[in-house]
Every structure is written in C-alpha cells, then in structure tokens.
Design brief:
Elements (H helix, E strand, L loop, with lengths): L4 H6 L12 H21 L1 H13 L18 E6 L5 E9 L7 E6 L11 E4 L13 E6 L5 E2 L2 E2 L4 E4 L14 E6 L8 E5 L4 H6 L11 E5 L6 E11 L2 E8 L10 H6 L18 E4 L19 H13 L5 H16 L3 E3 H11 L9 H9 L8 E3 H9 L4 H18 L5 H7 L31 H13 L4 H12 L2
Antiparallel strand pairs: 1-4, 1-14, 2-3, 3-13, 4-5, 5-10, 6-7, 8-9, 9-13, 10-11, 12-13, 15-16
Helix pairs in contact: 6-9, 7-8, 7-13, 11-13, 11-14
C-alpha cells in the first residue's frame, strides 16, 4: 500500500480514537500538569519535593509498647503481613485517581524503626479507650505526622474499603479496593478475627483480648471481606516495588474431620471449618521496648474555629491592612439588606474566597468546614452573620478601645462640628497606610457603613470600623501610630 509523504510524517501523531465525556477538560488538566512539571523542573524544585516526601514518610514516629502484649485503643501499631513478611504502608501524596480524595495503600518492606507511613493508630468509633477485643469495631488511622501542613494538620485519613463495582476495584487483581479516606463513615470500620485457628476455637475467641502474637484477619465490617495481599500482585510506587492491598476472603479447599467433630459435639455445621490462607493473615505489632513509645514530636494542634479565624485574618491582611474590614463591611451590608441575619454557608464561603483571591495563603476546604460547622446551628446550612463577624474579630482590648475613643474625640473636636463622611475624607491622610505591606489598593472611605457623604459617623460606627483594623495590627504601638498618622492627632 502506498502512502503520501504527509501520511508518513503524520502517522505517528494521529490515531483512531473516540473521545467521550469531558475529554477537553482532561486534556487541559494534562497540559496544566505538564506546564507545572516543567516550571518545577526549571526551578529545581522536583528533587526538593521528592526529598521532603521521603523524609516525612520515613520519619521516625512513636510505636506503642505493652508489657502484657494486649492491644488497646489509641495505640500506634504496625500491621505485619504473614505471607509476604512486609507491613501495611500508605502513600498520602498519591491519589488513586486525580480528585478522588482517596490515597494508595500497599504492603512494603518493614523499616528498621517505626516510620510514619507504616504506623497506624487504632481508633474506637465511639471514642472509648481500653482493651481491643475480637469482634470490636475499630478504625485504622494513618499517622498524624503525614498530615502536617505548615502550622496546621490536614484531616486524618482512615483505612477504607467499598464494594467492587465496574468503576471501583483494585488496579492489579480487580478485587475490592482498599484506600485511605478522610471520611470516617461505616466504610472505615474493621473487626479483628482469629486467622490462625478454625472451628470452635475461632468461634470462642470472640470477645477475648487481641494479642500481638496472634495471627488475625482484618474483616471489613460493611462488606464482610478480609484484608488481602498476595506477593504475586506487585505495584510500582515512589518507595519501590510493593504489594497491592485489597479485600478478598480466601480459604482452604477442604474441611478436616468436620462430620466427626459434629458427631462428637465439638463443632456445628455453621462453623467456618475451612482454614484461612496466609494472604488474609496479619499480625498487629507493638514495640519491643518502652523507649520506642516516647513521643517527642511537636505536631501542630488540630484546627479549631478560632485558629481558622486567625488564618483567615492573616490571609486577608497580607493583601492590605484594611483587607479584613473590606470583608466585614460587605457582610454587614448583606446582613442589613437581608433582614433575617442568616446567610447560606456556601454563599459565605465564596464571599470569603472572593476577598482572599489574591492572598498568598488561602484556607483549605476542610478549614472552611471547621469554621462554618461551629456556626451552623442544627446543621441547617445557614450561618448567623453577626456570630461569624464576632468570631473573626475577636475581643478588643480595653487599651485599644480607649485609643479609638480618644481618636474620635480628637477628630470631632478638630472638625468643630458633626463628624460626617465627607469631613472624614478631607481629614484622612492616606500616607498612614504606607507603613504596611499591600498588594492591592483599598479605598478606606468606602469601608464605612454610612454611605451618604453628609451622613454622620457615630462613635459606635467609628469603633466598629477600627475593631476590624485592630485585628490586622498585632502591636499596640503600631496601632496607636496608625491612628495618629491617619487623623493627625
């Protein structure tokens, strides 16, 4: 068959494929990733990011110790896989697919000392402490050291599994998928069963303490499948070639003297007589010395509404000293026009995002949830605007309140009459803003609740405006100087 030169040149570039779904968005995403990759490569940041990942993932963490070898809630353990000799490990930087919010789990080589990616915390779904017994539900939480993000912690991750579907399955063996997820729902509940015994002994083990020398099976409570790993199912990760983890219950093919045991009364017909195989067998490992359990880490505190409010203030004030006041004034206008005093939490979230668009550090979605959940009474999806404003503003010290009142008195005396918006505009010195870093311009005169140029600015309104400005200035001397420079008093 003859081909034209154009066909020969273009043959490697074109192929007969059908584009379905959001193919254009996928193409744009790939182009954005490549652009980001090239930019990082040019700056030399690729090696730095990889090195930081390795240091954080393989960093030493506490490993719980127990003299009696009995497992308890809130202990840090390793999960040893008996067939491969490896340990359960995670990669919280590698999503199962982009945007899924779920992360890869595998069986890796056991480290010389407990590391962050191979150590999990056993958490009770009810928050209780005490001994873990066979049949008790629990969650396996990834180590907190993996969730450090600057001065805060990302939401915790829990071992999860869901029913196999045509869209969700393990990538190598096509079994029930196992991942890490931030949502602590029923899909993250597990139960320990005896994997090294069968028959009556396995049945009678229920409600007895789980010990570190027991071979156990980790039963997924929602689907009834055991945690599974097989050495033949290998996956490539940033940490080397490891073994895939999924959920699948496998048992031996035969029963041993089942009828004879039933006749003797030692076994019933509904007992699991077939033995579990090594692919389902695990061991929960504890430290061999108390020294390994010492926790010298300085982890950030979990996010609270107050800490998130502080981060929001920081994000807004990096743009301008009046950045916070700009947000507060827009919300006060919404509150005054709406009448109910309530605002849809999603609308509030996007109103904040609009103000922090140019900020160098914005809030994460989980931080928004922490902040708004505290204000959403009854989880109805609405937030009282005044409560949000009070939380973000925080308390105003008596010293600063006195400074603001003295400034208002001095301005009122200097004007020799009513303090109107037009009079303030003439008296205000914009040079006071030069002492503070700003990435955009803000018209201070547009930040007052009174919009009529002839309208009177009351003491309360003056105080209200400078409450927001005060939140952006940490030092009392700087705040006092700002007032003096602004009004020449």
């Amino acid at each position: 068959m003859q081909f034209t030169p154009q066909q020969l040149v273009g043959a490697g570039r074109y192929s007969a494929t059908t584009r379905i779904g959001n193919w254009n968005e996928d193409l744009m995403l790939e182009e954005a990733r490549m652009k980001d990759y090239r930019a990082q490569k040019q700056k030399g940041g690729l090696g730095t990011a990889f090195r930081q990942k390795m240091e954080q993932a393989n960093g030493r963490v506490p490993h719980s110790f127990a003299d009696d070898g009995v497992l308890r809630f809130n202990m840090y353990v390793t999960l040893e896989h008996l067939q491969t000799g490896g340990v359960l490990a995670c990669d919280v930087w590698e999503e199962t697919f982009t945007g899924s919010g779920e992360f890869v789990v595998s069986v890796g080589r056991p480290p010389s000392a407990a590391s962050a990616r191979t150590t999990f915390c056993i958490v009770s779904p009810t928050g209780q402490s005490g001994i873990v017994r066979y049949g008790d539900p629990f969650r396996l939480m990834a180590n907190e050291a993996l969730r450090v993000d600057g001065a805060s912690l990302l939401p915790m991750l829990f071992l999860k599994s869901t029913l196999k579907t045509e869209r969700s399955m393990s990538p190598v063996s096509s079994n029930q998928n196992v991942t890490l997820s931030v949502t602590p729902d029923t899909s993250t509940l597990w139960v320990a069963t005896r994997a090294d015994v069968g028959g009556a002994e396995k049945l009678l083990a229920a409600s007895t303490p789980v010990r570190t020398n027991d071979g156990i099976g980790l039963l997924h409570k929602m689907t009834g499948q055991l945690l599974f790993a097989d050495a033949k199912n290998s996956v490539a990760t940033d940490f080397g070639t490891e073994t895939e983890v999924c959920c699948l219950t496998v048992k031996g093919h035969g029963k041993s003297f089942n009828l004879a045991h039933e006749a003797a009364g030692a076994r019933t017909s509904d007992m699991h007589a077939r033995s579990s195989l090594s692919q389902n067998a695990w061991r929960l490992g504890l430290a061999t010395s108390p020294q390994a359990a010492a926790d010298n880490r300085r982890l950030p505190a979990p996010s609270t509404p107050e800490s998130v409010a502080y981060l929001l203030v920081q994000a807004l004030t990096t743009q301008h000293v009046f950045g916070l006041r700009q947000l507060m004034q827009s919300l006060q206008n919404v509150d005054a026009s709406g009448g109910s005093g309530l605002m849809d939490r999603e609308d509030l979230k996007w109103a904040i995002k609009a103000c922090e668009t140019e900020a160098s550090l914005g809030l994460r979605d989980d931080q928004y949830d922490t902040l708004l959940n505290a204000l959403d009474d009854g989880k109805r999806g609405f937030v009282k605007v005044t409560r949000f404003i009070e939380l973000v503003r925080g308390p105003l010290s008596d010293a600063r309140k006195s400074m603001i009142n003295q400034t208002y008195d001095a301005v009122s005396s200097g004007l020799g009459g009513a303090v109107t918006l037009s009079a303030l505009a003439k008296a205000y010195d914009t040079g006071c803003e030069s002492a503070f870093r700003s990435t955009r311009s803000v018209d201070f005169m547009a930040l007052w609740t009174t919009t009529d140029a002839r309208g009177v600015i009351t003491r309360n309104e003056f105080l209200d405006v400078y409450k927001d400005v005060s939140r952006a200035v940490d030092d009392d001397i700087m705040f006092e100087q700002l007032l003096k420079n602004a009004w020449g008093v």
